[in-house]
Write a structure and sequence with these properties.
The protein is of the alpha/beta class and about 120 residues long. It has 4 helices and 5 strands. It is globular and about 35 Å long.
C-alpha cells in the first residue's frame, strides 16, 4: 500500500499521508514524497490527511517536519491529523508556532475525512 496517495471522499480529493508506525528514517522518506506531490499542486488547493499514529520521532524528524510544513503552507487548503498524542502533541505545537499553520486534530480517520469533505 502506498503511504502517500490521493483518496476520494464525498467527491473531494484528499492527499492521505500515512506516517503510522513509521521509523524516523521512513518518515523522512515519506515526507520527501509528500512534499513533491503537494508542491506539484495548485496553491491553496490541497486537502491533507496525515496519520501519525505510533510514528517514531527524533530531533531530525522534528526539524524536518517544521521545514516540510512551512514549505507546504502555500499549497494546503486544509489539514487534518490523526494520532497526535504525547510527545507528538508537543512537536505539533512547536510546528504551529513556527509555521503559523492551522491543523484540525481527530481521533479517527472517518471523522477527519468528513471534516475535510466540507472544506
Amino acid at each position: 500500500m502506498e503511504r502517500v496517495r490521493f483518496i476520494t471522499h464525498k467527491d473531494r480529493k484528499i492527499l492521505y499521508i500515512d506516517f503510522s508506525c513509521c521509523s524516523p528514517e521512513e518518515m523522512m522518506t515519506y515526507m520527501r514524497e509528500a512534499q513533491r506531490i503537494i508542491s506539484s499542486q495548485s496553491e491553496g488547493s490541497v486537502l491533507t490527511l496525515t496519520d501519525v499514529t505510533d510514528a517514531r520521532y527524533n530531533r531530525q524528524v522534528s526539524a524536518a517536519l517544521k521545514e516540510y510544513t512551512n514549505a507546504n503552507k502555500p499549497f494546503v487548503k486544509a489539514a487534518a491529523v490523526i494520532g497526535v498524542t504525547g510527545l507528538k502533541e508537543v512537536i505539533l505545537n512547536a510546528i504551529i508556532l513556527f509555521t503559523r499553520r492551522k491543523f484540525s486534530l481527530f481521533d479517527r480517520i472517518d471523522e477527519a475525512k468528513e471534516w475535510l469533505a466540507t472544506r
